Amino acid sequence: MAKNIVVMINSGRDQKAKILTGLTLALVGKQKHLFDDVQVIFFGPSEQLIAEKDPDIMNMLEQLTKVENVYACQLVGDSMKITDKLKEVQGLNVTLVGPVIADFVAKGYEILNF
Question: In what order do the strands lie in the sheet with 4-9?
Answer without folding.
Answer: 92-95, 70-73, 37-42, 4-9, 110-113
